[in-house]
Design a protein that fits this description.
4 strands, four-stranded antiparallel β-sheet, Aspartate Aminotransferase, domain 1, alpha+beta
Length: 130
């Protein structure tokens, strides 16, 4: 703030120490409204349902070695050959997060749970992989 010291002192007594911009406050209030909470619950339920379905189908693939428990919107999956899987999917326009650089996560990819169409595309592509 640029002002005379006495003006700054007066204003500092009137404003909150960490003022929230009005647009941010409105967004937060909308998100916490009944409609906003209902929307978030619907999204959460959709993600959980999609994740459960994707996990079931991934478990059927012979080159999937392990799927870790998850309470998030992604799955951590160990593949027999994550580089081959990553490259194959990348060649088909599907990008996953390679976790091979993380300690102990060689051959692991992270799959973010998207909408049903995106997940179906991923699963169809994986089913065709040799």
């Amino acid at each position: 703030m640029l002002a005379q010291p006495d003006v700054i002192e007066l204003l500092s007594k009137l404003i909150a120490p960490y003022p929230i911009p009005d647009p941010s406050a409105r967004i937060a209030l909308n998100a916490l409204s009944d409609i906003g909470v209902s929307f978030m619950e619907t999204q959460r339920d959709r993600i959980l349902s999609t994740k459960k379905s994707v996990k079931k189908k991934l478990n059927e693939l012979p080159f999937v070695e392990k799927i870790y428990p998850s309470v998030t919107n992604f799955l951590l999956v160990k593949f027999a050959d994550s580089k081959k899987t990553f490259d194959y999917l990348s060649d088909h326009g599907i990008i996953l997060r390679d976790q091979a650089q993380a300690l102990g996560l060689e051959n692991h990819l992270r799959i973010t749970i998207g909408d049903d169409a995106d997940m179906e595309q991923l699963l169809d592509c994986l089913a065709l992989m040799r």
